[in-house]
Amino acid sequence: MNRKTFLQQLGLVTAGTALTPALFNWIKQNGPFYPIRNNVGYFTGRGGTIGWHITNESVAVIDSQFQNSAEDFMAGIFDFGPGGPARYLFNTHHHGDHVSGNGVFRSGNFEIIAHQNVPELQRESAGSNSESVVAANRVFDDEITVESGSEIITAKYYGRAHTRGDSVIWFENANIAHMGDLVFNRWYPFIDTNGGALIENWISMLEIVANEATADTRFIFGHGNRDFGVTGSSDDLLYMRDYLSKLMEHTQAGIQAGQSPEEISAIEQFEEFPDHQSAGARLSLQSNIEAAYAELTS
Ligand SMILES: [Zn+2]
Question: Partner of 43 for a Cys bridge, out of 50, 142, 226, 229, CB 3.0 to 4.6 A?
């Protein structure tokens, strides 16, 4: 399987390319539904990883990817349980590869829940198409808790990070948390400066979440990695924190030395982070340095 195909599988390339037979077989053997434990699992499809919990009474879903993959998800999820009248969809944040399938869930009578900044950010990004946006009908400020069958699900806001509307969704009993795009596992992340990103707080919130976890907590990442996984532990959160700290230190040192943004970005990789991969210009070390430079000089 070539690199581009893997990037699509992992949700990092969003062009509507048809599945190759090799990828189709790979998905058939390896998912796209992956149960973890306590009726909680994840689904890869296309775009940001979907998290799910299904019982005899309820179904709760984290993020909706795109219309076609949301339809694939709905066609397969009920193999894992009959579901029931309690139906929730959480949006971890507003980016298109996490919310473009919202309409499929709205038609399925799901209540859509997100941080209060998310609907506005969705409309801002949609520009002249803002009327077609399907956004949350229940929003929260700091946190919100719902019961989904035997599970308690809490969505928590930790301040500006990847955008100004990210939340972490905790499945309390299963001890699993969906990180949305707060973790790009060993990819150079997208840092959405226009959408209110704040690297400084992203660093501290990853540490706060890692401290809230136990050794047994499993984290689901918005964008997983073939070599490092779609799920992981708090060590992966701290690794991402360390990458962002290095990014800020490197950029700050360049600013102090009087270097231009071009000079500061003239670096192929940080030697401490040789495993980070790039998935295009927007997800590169250079664009990360640009975002850090903007934050440090604003
Ligand atoms: Zn995102």
Answer: 50
187 vs 281, higher pLDDT: 187
Rounded to the nearest 10 degrees, what angle do helices 199-212 and 234-256 cross at? 160
Residue 47 is encoded by which pair of tokens? 């775009």
Q: What's the CA gap between 19 and 32, in Å, rounded?
A: 13
Measured distance between the N- and C-terminal CA atoms of the chain, rounded to whole angstroms: 43
pLDDT tens, 115-162?
999 999 999 999 999 999 999 999 999 999 999 998 999 999 999 999
pTM for this one?
Answer: 0.90
Tell me how far the alpha carbon of residue 96 lies from the centroid of ligand 1, in angstroms.
Answer: 8
Residues 91/98, Cβ–Cβ less than 8 Å: yes
| Residue 75: pLDDT over 70 | yes
Read off the pLDDT band of 111 (50, 70, 90): very high
- What is the distance in A from the centroid of ligand 1 to the CA of 180? 7
User: How many Å lie between the centroid of ligand 1 and the Cα of residue 235?
Assistant: 21
Ion ligand 1, residue ranges at CB < 5 A? 95, 181
Going along the chain from its start, the domains and CATH numbers come out as 32-242 (3.60.15.10)
CA 234 to ligand 1 centroid distance, Å: 20
Are the beta carbons of 51 and 169 closer than 8 angstroms? yes
Residue 77 Cα, ligand 1 centroid: separation in angstroms?
24
Give 105 Cα–ligand 1 centroid separation in angstroms. Answer: 20
Q: Tokens at residue 244, please?
A: 């962002």
